[in-house]
Design brief:
Elements (H helix, E strand, L loop, with lengths): L5 H20 L10 E8 L5 E8 L3 H25 L7 E6 L2 H14 L7 H5 L6 H6 L1
Parallel strand pairs: 2-3
Antiparallel strand pairs: 1-2
């Protein structure tokens, strides 16, 4: 099975959906932050390993504690995946912090905070500019 095949994409989505449900409903570890979401999942074509990318709302301490909690809950999650999904092999789960959402928010904030020079206001407002001849005639 190729990495980007339809079957592999479907397996990735099923594992992502199931892990999201398990982490939010079944895992009772207090180290895991309540605002933890699974952003993506990449299951290897041989179904032996899976990279699970998570996003945590909070500071760096909350992220590290959540990562530690998920690593300790990995055997439970793998067993639950085996029960809920019918796969030939149940992948070993490896968790990684996904900072892409925070990066996007930071970049949007930086773009919005840039000042636009006053002479370019006419260009951005959509008003047609007058040529030099039209300005001289007035």
């Amino acid at each position: 099975m190729r990495k980007n095949s339809v079957k592999n994409t479907r397996i990735n989505q099923e594992v992502l959906r199931e892990l999201s449900t398990l982490i939010s409903m079944e895992v009772k570890d207090p180290r895991i932050a309540p605002m933890t979401s699974v952003t993506s999942c990449e299951v290897a074509p041989d179904l032996k390993t899976a990279k699970v990318y998570i996003s945590v709302l909070g500071d760096d301490e909350a992220k590290s504690n959540t990562l530690k909690g998920l690593k300790s809950a990995a055997p439970f999650l793998r067993t639950s995946l085996a029960r809920n999904l019918n796969l030939r092999n149940t992948p070993e789960l490896k968790f990684y912090i996904d900072d892409s959402i925070e990066y996007g928010v930071r970049m949007t904030h930086l773009i919005n905070s840039m000042n636009i020079p006053p002479e370019d206001d006419d260009i951005l407002s959509g008003e047609p500019q007058k040529s030099n001849e039209a300005q001289n005639n007035e």
